[in-house]
Write a structure and sequence with these properties.
This protein has 344 residues and is an alpha/beta fold. It folds into two domains: 2-147 and 312-342, Medium-chain alcohol dehydrogenases, catalytic domain (Quinone Oxidoreductase, Chain A, domain 1, Alpha-Beta Complex); 152-289, Alpha-Beta Complex (Quinone Oxidoreductase, Chain A, domain 1), CATH 3.90.180. It contains eleven helices and 17 strands. Strands 3, 4, 5, 8, 9, 16 and 17 form a seven-stranded mixed beta sheet that branches. A six-stranded parallel beta sheet has the order 12-11-10-13-14-15, with helices on both faces. The radius of gyration is 20 Å and the shape is globular.
């Protein structure tokens, strides 16, 4: 048996409790992982609150940002050994479909969301497909490694594969003190761009410049575009990485330069926005969505952390029993980077 966090009733706050449940048995091609840590994401918050329901396994174990140690191997597994350190993707990938073969494991046609459609990492153990895991060096901190796929890999994929940021470009990152934002900031800096960080949290201001932000805009107002334009000689930014979504959309759009790329990486409220198609045309703009992370990008993150070019930002590690505290802290935006839960 193992300890696992169970969502007994959704709400604000949700009813959560830790129960003894059977340890999962790895099937063919699956790996049993003893969980070292699991990040607590806004996705988990929305499921717990009852806002996100579609595709969620009834009575399932949440948590998709997993690091740990290989504890068992199913039939036919290759490339992993017991005792090895690993991190997981966000989707349980089949490794055989056209998307997996194209390196788009995060959109596997047979894939299930870990901690969504199948049991996740808010437990002592989790069983996932071998195609879902990437090894990490034995001397690397496993708690920080829980963030390698999400938010770090998700942010890296948005910056490198979707926005295609190049050295010298100006990049605006909204929600820069959050999990996605602070790691998107680091990724853009690592690529040689000039980053303008936007945050509404006064408490997080002092943490963003040390991460490499050239300018930090603190605004409790929704319109920060005038400041962005002033800092870019009225040109705007070549790239905007938006981790907030609709609440900031008017300012986000106005901050974008001619031929700019707006990458939508987060949506916190689900409110529709208004945008004239003519504005997109005459700005020659690209409006792009990005979600998930491929195995190749996850491996890139592992390498960049090893080289000291990226750093996982965890504000606090809490036991499973304090998941309600994590929910409250994230709800009230009292988290710099990410929280992590552990069953150990």
């Amino acid at each position: 048996m193992m300890r696992a966090l169970i969502l007994e009733q959704t709400g604000r706050p949700p009813k959560l409790s830790v129960h003894e449940v059977p340890v999962p048995v790895p099937g063919p091609g699956e790996v049993l992982v003893q969980v070292a840590a699991c990040g607590f994401c806004h996705h988990d918050l929305l499921v717990m609150a009852g806002v996100l329901r579609r595709g969620v396994k009834p009575g399932g174990i949440l948590g998709h940002e997993i690091s740990g140690v290989v504890a068992g191997l199913g039939e036919g597994v290759s490339g992993f050994q017991e005792g090895g350190h690993v991190v997981s993707l966000l989707t349980n990938a089949c490794g055989r479909c056209d998307r997996c073969r194209q390196g788009r494991e995060h959109r596997c046609r047979q894939g299930e969301g870990i901690g969504h459609g199948r049991d996740g990492g808010f437990a002592e153990y989790v069983a996932v497909s071998q195609f879902t895991l990437a090894p990490v060096p034995a001397d690397m901190d496993l708690t920080g490694a829980a963030l390698f796929a999400c938010p770090m890999g998700v942010a890296m994929q948005a910056v490198t594969q979707v926005a295609r940021v190049t050295p010298g470009e100006t990049v605006v990152v909204t929600g820069a003190g959050g999990g996605l934002g602070i790691h998107a900031l680091q990724a853009a800096v690592a690529l040689g761009s000039r980053v303008i960080a936007v945050t509404s949290s006064e408490e997080k201001l002092g943490h963003l410049a040390p991460m490499g932000a050239e300018e930090v805009l603190h605004t409790s107002e929704l319109d920060f575009s005038e400041m962005v334009l002033a800092l870019t000689e009225d040109e705007g930014a070549e790239v905007v990485i938006d981790t907030v979504g609709s609440p900031l959309f008017p300012s986000t759009w106005r901050s974008l330069a001619q031929f700019g790329r707006l990458v939508l990486l987060g949506e916190v409220s689900g409110t529709p926005v208004e945008l004239s198609l003519a504005e997109i045309i005459f700005k020659d703009a690209q409006v792009l969505g990005s979600s998930g992370v491929s195995r190749a990008v996850l491996e890139q993150v592992v390498a960049m952390v090893s080289e000291g070019r990226l750093k996982p930002i965890i504000s606090q590690v809490l036991p499973l029993e304090q998941a309600a505290t994590a929910f409250d802290m994230l709800s009230n935006r009292r988290v710099l980077g990410r929280l992590a839960l552990t069953a150990r």
